[in-house]
Amino acid sequence: MAENVKEDPETPLKKLFGNTPLVRVVDVLIENPRIGYSKRELAEAAEIKLDDLNKIWRKLEEKNLIHKSPRAGDTALYTANLESSLLKALATLESKDNVKKRLKENYQELSATRRESKRKQREN
């Protein structure tokens, strides 16, 4: 049976701090700030073990990166703390990197279109 391998792009946070459980969780929170996760769901979304999430949980709370949301039945849910200045700064870093990537992709696409247009003109 073929294993489903998910592409894991290197985010600015991963480039800066490494591919650690904390960075993976923060990336998930930045990418999906309004989604409420149970601890298990957050670990799955970050592709880390629940034990690893539990090891960094205190740091997430101390740095005010998570916010406890209304419960879903008996399960506590957590979202990104949208008031956290640290999380806002990290999200800005991610956002600027994404804008740079899109600009580069658009430039490359435009250049390819221009080259193709010039090639067609020479053929005629």
TrEMBL record:
<keyword id="KW-0175">Coiled coil</keyword>
<feature type="coiled-coil region">
    <location>
        <begin position="93"/>
        <end position="120"/>
    </location>
</feature>
<protein>
    <recommendedName>
        <fullName>HTH marR-type domain-containing protein</fullName>
    </recommendedName>
</protein>
